[in-house]
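Schema walk-through. Below, the input block comes first and the output block second. Nothing else is stored per chain. Lengths vary across the set, and this one has 81 residues.
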Amino acid sequence: MRGQGVALFREEVAKGMVQAAEQMKQANLDTNVILFSMWTEAIKNFAELGRGNVIFLDGSSEGMEKTMRQIMAMQHMDNKK
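--- output ---
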């Protein structure tokens, strides 16, 4: 049952992101702002909830993509527990 709830949540998040991206395109805004916002929110969570005292960040767009893939993989692992 828990897996279905997580799947539905992700589906709704994806729908919201698609809608936000469409609205941004209509306003001639860069849709990469959505990914950047997710990346900065993740960093905020690392800082607030992390147990360490050092965070290494790659500020390149490739680094941001890699970080997002890693975060998504960790969330997937968490959901399997």
